[in-house]
Amino acid sequence: MTFLGSWWLLGQSTHVLLLAHLHGLITLLVLYGTFFVTVPTLRWLGIQYLNKRIESRNAKRKEAADMISNPSADLTKKLEQAANQRIQQKQISEKDVVYTTDKDILEQEFEPPK
């Protein structure tokens, strides 16, 4: 009500002589009322937009999770191939590491390799 009433009062301040003296104050009231309504409305619209994007991502994740939990024959075959490839890859062990951050580089240079 403050928002609409302040705009009405601003319009009346040009016609009524008594209100003409308060025109500057009425203008501030109009600006306050306008921002009081506009800022939360814009924030609400932004939140609605972000929530739509979040819901879309969640739907895609659920679809992917459902696909993994109930895989088709083709997907099962691909998952098995990926598991076999992972087994065939070389595993890096402690002796394969050349540099670590546990010690300073100068200390490591003078140590014999393990």
What is the element layout, followed by pairings?
Elements: H1 2-13, H2 17-20, H3 23-69, H4 73-88, H5 105-109
Structural class: mainly alpha
Radius of gyration: 34 Å
Number of strands: 0
Q: Into how many domains do the coordinates divide?
A: 1
Which sheet architecture does the biggest sheet show? none
- Tell me the distance between the termini: 80 Å
Overall shape: it is: elongated
Low-confidence stretches: none
The proportion of residues in beta strands is under 5%
Number of helices: 5
Average predicted confidence as pLDDT = 82
Q: Report the helical percentage.
A: over 70%
SSE sequence, one letter per element: HHHHH
What keyword list fits this structure?
114 residues; mainly alpha; 5 helices; elongated
Give an overview in words.
- It is a single chain.
- The chain has 114 residues and is mainly α.
- It has one domain (2-88).
- 74% of the residues lie in helices and 0% in strands.
- The protein has helices at residues 2-13, 17-20, 23-69, 73-88, 105-109.
- Helix 1 runs antiparallel to helix 3 (23-69).
